[in-house]
Fold:
Amino acid sequence: MYPHERSLVKRLKDDPFALIGVNSDKNLDTLQAVLKKQNITWRSFWNGGSTRGPISTAWNVRSWPTIYVLDHKGVIRYKNVRGEEMDAAVDTLLDQMKTGTGGQ
Structure:
């Protein structure tokens, strides 16, 4: 998913958009090397080396990857969208925010 995420971050660099990752790799040093190698420029939080870490527990994540797309108020509006579906979800929310529509 990294290539798609990189393209999304690049495309929306001038928009009010943030991509946040949560990683459950066991070894933090290994994770940091992967993030550097994969050119991960967005925030990526470490879940304590477990899929049952504090972040996944708080957000009720039960499978990986789990994708939440939140609106500008922090409300989960889409779940587990990928690729073109993720792009459409993000674009829809940005359009709604810009036009003041969206009903949330």
Notes: The first strand starts at residue 20 and ends at 23. The beta strands are 20-23, 43-46, 68-70, 76-79. The chain has one domain: 2-11+18-94. Residues 2-11+18-94 form a domain with the Glutaredoxin fold (CATH 3.40.30.10).
